[in-house]
């Protein structure tokens, strides 16, 4: 397979190195006829690449099969534990159940990955978990958790070898966190933030993944991790998050009398389109509590903020500014009174990917929401340009703000406030007219009923005084041309004569 000149060059190089080379040793082990390299196990470069690619694909396939088998074993362990304890019903309330979980949790749900020794230990540990008395293990995994797990596995398939590494790191992190339930929520937050940073660094430095793909992968990692950790780290009983939630809700209820004019909100809800935007903004900020992933909660805040900007733009016919946005956001929070507001804010701060909070529009809108909550907590008479006496009366419910009379306006009051007061006066007049019409209609209805009863009584009296005598109906006469001739009793000249023809 080699020319004479090629053989001479190879022999010459070998003689210079003091090595005797047989021609049969130079051939590729696969028999393709090309020169084989000892560093490549005797294959030529082309055959070596083919063999390496086959071995690599085989290893990837074996790794995926192992990952799927471990996932199935984990799901079967959950299902078996659920069936054995199906007759028991958990009647604890939400916070009582949390307290029991914190005291009796001895669950290890994730095992070491890609090691032969860990597979046997994983199965044994799952059997022990099924026997554990923790009530949290008896609860069947939610549909959302199963869906997120499947979506995460499908996503990391596209990353091939880096995806396997991501899956392995996530499993190890969940396994580690299951043993750290006794740590404070701040320490668990630090663990999660360190994990985010380590995974991002591994993707960038070790696997050379582009920045845009790293960001997308980190979003999926956060979604997978926090969906599984949500019930343990959201509003834990070891913190005062629940107490703060109740305090904020009570404070917002006490401020129900605050009007948009007091906050200088540049939004007119009399415009139907603006009113729809306000309703959508309130819906989005309330929907935040139903999400599990910090990124999804941030998305609800972002959608709410964009509806606010659109409402301001429609009202003012110009783009909204930051000075207009914050008062309107405060008004939306006061009007919507979102559930567990402080818990959601703390959850996002502790477990959200830090790159989202420090950059982008999500971080900006979240910062404004934190400022709005802080403003509501410290709201006083000076913030609303009210006297302390009026503020105290409004807070205690002794009275409520009254509209200003149109004649008492100062010259510097804007036209919008004047027009609003005129509209309120007109509505008050219409309300009085409506009440008057309803009163007259009820009176007319009563008169009609009395007149009907009077006429009915008069008719009954007349019938009683002059009773009607109904005579029997007389027998009708038969027609002249009737066939019943015998009963007609006509005189002889008029009787019909029948002639036999």
From TrEMBL:
Sorted alphabetically, the Gene Ontology BP terms of this entry are: endocytosis; protein transport
| Residue ranges constituting the A20-type domain according to the UniProt record | 22-56
All copies of the VPS9 domain together span 242-385
What are the Polar residues biased-composition ranges?
79-90
Query: Which key words are in the record?
Result: Acetylation, Cytoplasm, Endocytosis, Endosome, Metal-binding, Phosphoprotein, Protein transport, Transport, Ubl conjugation, Ubl conjugation pathway, Zinc, Zinc-finger
Predominant localisation class: cytoplasm
Q: Name one GO cellular component term.
A: cytosol
The domain of life is Eukaryota
**Molecular function terms from GO:** DNA binding; guanyl-nucleotide exchange factor activity; small GTPase binding; zinc ion binding
Subcellular location, record wording: Cytoplasm; Early endosome; Recycling endosome
Q: Which residue ranges are recorded for the region named Disordered?
A: 75-94, 124-143, 482-501
| Classification via SMART domains | VPS9, ZnF_A20
InterPro entries per UniProt:
DUF5601 (IPR041545), VPS9 (IPR003123), Vps9-like (IPR045046), VPS9_dom_sf (IPR037191), Znf_A20 (IPR002653)
- This chain's protein is named Rab5 GDP/GTP exchange factor
Origin organism of this chain?
Answer: Copsychus sechellarum
Q: Which gene encodes it?
A: Rabgef1
């Amino acid at each position: 397979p080699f020319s004479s000149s090629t053989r001479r060059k190879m022999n010459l190089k070998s003689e210079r190195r003091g090595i005797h080379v047989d021609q049969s040793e130079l051939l590729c082990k696969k028999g393709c006829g090309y020169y084989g390299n000892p560093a490549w196990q005797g294959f030529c470069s082309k055959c070596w690449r083919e063999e390496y690619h086959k071995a690599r694909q085989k290893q990837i396939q074996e790794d995926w099969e192992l990952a799927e088998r471990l996932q199935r074993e984990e799901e079967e362990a959950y299902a078996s534990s659920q069936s054995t304890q199906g007759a028991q019903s958990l009647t604890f309330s939400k916070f009582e159940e949390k307290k029991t979980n914190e005291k009796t949790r001895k669950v290890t749900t994730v095992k070491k990955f890609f090691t032969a020794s860990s597979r046997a230990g994983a199965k044994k540990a799952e059997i022990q978990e099924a026997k554990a008395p923790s009530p949290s293990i008896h609860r069947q995994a939610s549909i959302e958790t199963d869906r997120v797990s499947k979506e995460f596995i499908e996503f990391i398939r596209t990353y091939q070898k880096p995806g396997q590494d991501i899956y392995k790191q996530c499993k190890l992190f969940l396994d580690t966190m299951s043993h750290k339930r006794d740590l404070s929520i701040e320490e668990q937050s630090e663990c999660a933030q360190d994990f985010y940073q380590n995974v991002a660094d591994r993707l960038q430095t070790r696997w050379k993944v582009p920045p845009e793909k790293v960001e997308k992968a980190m979003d999926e990692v956060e979604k997978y991790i926090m969906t599984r950790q949500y019930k343990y780290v959201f509003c834990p009983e070891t913190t005062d998050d629940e107490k703060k939630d109740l305090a904020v809700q009570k404070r917002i209820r006490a401020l129900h009398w605050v009007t948009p004019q007091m906050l200088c909100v540049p939004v007119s809800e009399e415009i139907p389109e603006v009113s729809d935007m306000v309703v959508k903004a309130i819906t989005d900020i309330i929907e935040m509590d139903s999400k599990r992933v910090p990124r999804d909660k941030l998305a609800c805040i972002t959608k709410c903020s964009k509806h606010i900007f659109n409402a301001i733009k429609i009202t003012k016919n110009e783009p909204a500014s930051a000075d207009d946005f914050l008062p309107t956001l405060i008004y939306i929070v006061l009007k919507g009174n979102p559930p567990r507001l402080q818990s959601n804010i703390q959850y996002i701060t502790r477990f959200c990917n830090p790159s989202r909070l420090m950059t982008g529009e999500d971080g900006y809108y979240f910062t404004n929401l934190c400022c709005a909550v802080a403003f509501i907590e410290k709201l006083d008479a000076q913030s609303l340009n009210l006297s302390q006496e009026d503020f105290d009366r409004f807070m205690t419910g002794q009275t409520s703000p009254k509209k200003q009379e149109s004649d008492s306006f100062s010259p510097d009051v804007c036209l919008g406030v004047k027009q609003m007061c005129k509209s309120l006066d007109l509505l008050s007049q219409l309300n009085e007219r409506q009440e008057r019409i309803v009163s007259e209609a009820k009176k007319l209805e009563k008169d009609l009923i009395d007149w009907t009863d009077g006429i009915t009584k008069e008719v009954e009296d007349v019938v009683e005084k002059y009773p009607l005598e109904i005579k029997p109906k007389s027998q009708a006469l038969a027609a002249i041309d009737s066939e019943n001739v015998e009963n007609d009793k006509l005189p002889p000249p008029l009787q019909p004569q029948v002639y036999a023809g």
